[in-house]
Specification:
The protein is mainly alpha-helical. It starts with a helix and ends in a 7-residue tail after the last helix.
């Protein structure tokens, strides 16, 4: 009986999250160009944001963890916001998802990630022996 309850509880939680996301996406679809600009998005991102929401992706956390930058970036709010803004509108999440699930050193993000330049800068800042600014 507890297995059924557990399954039912998970289904209810998923459904509540789905309804919250759907509601948020509907609100985003109604944003005008000025509101999108205030958030750092362009009008062309409206449809993508309305479909996918504005929640930061798990792939970004995975990417930062894989590059050894998670703690560093979490302590720098401005950088995290910049990374999230670009990541939210990324159209290569599938490639990213496959890349961050691997192990060991990885620099393949340069081939597809729209955040590659900022990630390179963060990696360089994090490299031992280099002074950070």
């Amino acid at each position: 009986m507890t297995e059924k309850t557990s399954w039912l509880t998970r289904c209810r939680a998923w459904h509540r999250a789905y309804l919250r996301r759907r509601s948020a996406c509907g609100e985003i679809a109604q944003f005008d160009d000025r509101q999108l600009d205030d958030l750092g998005f362009i009008p062309g991102d409206r449809v993508f944001l309305a479909r996918n929401g504005v929640a930061p992706s798990a792939e970004l956390r995975g990417m930062l963890a894989r590059l050894g930058l998670l703690r560093q970036v979490l302590g720098r709010q401005a950088r995290l916001v910049e990374l999230e803004r670009v990541c939210v509108t990324c159209r290569t999440r599938g490639i990213c998802r496959r890349g961050v699930t691997g192990s060991g050193p990885w620099n393949g993000y340069r081939a597809f990630c729209p955040n590659w330049a900022l990630l390179d800068e963060l990696v360089a800042d994090h490299t031992p022996g280099r002074a950070t600014g």
